[in-house]
Amino acid sequence: MENVKDVFFLKNRRVRKTVKNVLSYIFLVLFALFFLFPIFCLLLQSVMPDEELSQFTVFPSYFNFESYKTAFSDLSLLKYLGNTVLLVILNIFGSTVMSSVTAFGLSKVKFKGQNFVFSLILATVFLPSTVTSIPLYAMYLKLGWTTTNYPLWVPLLFGGGAMNIFLMRQFMRGIPKTYTEAAILDGASNFHIYLNIVLPLIKPIMIYLAVQTFFGVWNDFQGPLMYLEEETQYTLSLALYLEYGQPNDPLNVTMAVGVLMMIPCAALFAVFQKQLIEGVSTVGIKG
Fold this sequence. Notes:
Layout: H1 2-46, H2 66-73, H3 75-107, H4 114-123, H5 129-143, H6 162-172, H7 177-185, H8 190-201, H9 203-218, H10 222-227, H11 236-242, H12 251-271, H13 273-286
Helix pairs in contact: 1-12, 2-12, 3-6, 3-9, 4-6, 6-13, 7-8, 9-12, 9-13
């Protein structure tokens, strides 16, 4: 009798576990479809025929790729791409290299007031961007930077950003002290310790910050809208709104440019997905 009860209990437990897994997968699929639906509409409208753009329809009667041909034939798109890539490179340098140097000083070089300086830097994270945007614009206006792209990358050269410094410092705290102490006993300077010991060990977090910075700069709209006035300085996100997103512009061409702009982010995430997940989990453990 007891064996029968045990078998029934195990069978009932497996059934409950199976039902739970099925319901979880259904929920995750529905959740994914909810977020993928705008991308699905973007792809379909980018190949929608001109005569169907004014109609309330989701699926086009046939695929029209002339919108992509029009987007590729626009030489201005290459100019906007070049401006965006330049900003991406400068911001990645600031967010990875400069933040690693700052974090090294705050984690591996001992000096008085070290924790106070770090707390002061970290406190800037709690300031909303809407509060600081007007004072920053006034400061850049006095410097004569409001018609240039300097406000979009120069600030990162002075430390690398508070949140980037925090993540770098947390990661560096996980590096054993014996590595740096042995180097100091051998007469190595702080520069050599950073370059030859610390830098090779922080590649995972540097890749994580580089990819995150790419996403942020590539999709940034507010910053270029505030500071870039000349059409020759437009980034892709700003040009998508000002040059391709006007009411008189063909909707399918606008959607095609949006798809082209989305491809690098999707490809980068697919390539560095493992590093992104490991970067987040490792930072959490190191802290």
